[in-house]
Design brief:
Mean pLDDT: 79
CATH topology of one domain: Nucleotidyltransferase, domain 5
Number of helices: 5
Helix content: 25-40%
Oligomer: single chain
Largest sheet: 5 strands, mixed
Radius of gyration: 35 Å
Strand content: 15-25%
CATH class of one domain: Alpha Beta
Structural class: alpha/beta
Shape: elongated
Low-confidence stretches: none
Amino acid sequence: MAELNTGDGGGGKGGKVRSKKQNSKVDLTAMVDLAFLLITFFMLTTTLSKPQSMDLTLPDKEKDPTVKNDIKVDENRTMTLLLGENGKLVRYVGMLEKPLAAPKDFTYGKDGIRKELIDRMTKVIAYSTAKGKPKDGMIVIIKPSKKSTYRNLVDVLDEMAIVGVNATGSYAIVPEFTPEEQKLLEVKK
């Protein structure tokens, strides 16, 4: 507790009465105890932020490496994104030999690739419902080059989650490039 020490208050040797300095002593033990109790309480009741992760489905291991699985996909539902160096992003729709939409450069963000993904998704949904298969969604093939950054890949995967490609369709990350695709990624100076 707090103590206040005072002198005897009497006069000294002479007739003059001087006021004596009072020594004050405060015991801070209770305040320190309370501070540690509060720190302990908040440490035990606070939840720590958990790292966020993306759900990626990886393919199963192939049992026979000589068997090559060629999967036929409707080119009207397919969009390919090529990720290059210095943040370059190129999109083409369908097959590169005869694309449904010419290859075009895009930027990352809501006015760039997100807008294109939304536009393409509405066209694919309209195409699928006209064919009588409303559950067939858009297929996006993401091809990061060796010179692209990890951040660019994460940005594209974030756009897939924002637009909801996984809910209506699917996307895949493919590391292989054709020579024609490599030419599309060359930076023009």
